[in-house]
Amino acid sequence: MKIIDKIALVLIIIGAINWGLVGIFNFNLVDAIFGAMSIISRIIYILVGISGLWAIKILFDR
What we know:
single chain, mainly alpha, about 0% strand
């Protein structure tokens, strides 16, 4: 597995955990750490989204 695939996987896991927390407890961990819609939060959301798209490639690689 390439390093970019591992990075994408880690970001996808972070995003999934965050969505789980939002769904179960109505608690957004990214916003709690970096501030609601701060530039850093937005960058994290963008990277998680790009990682999700990259995962489509990973899914069909093998």
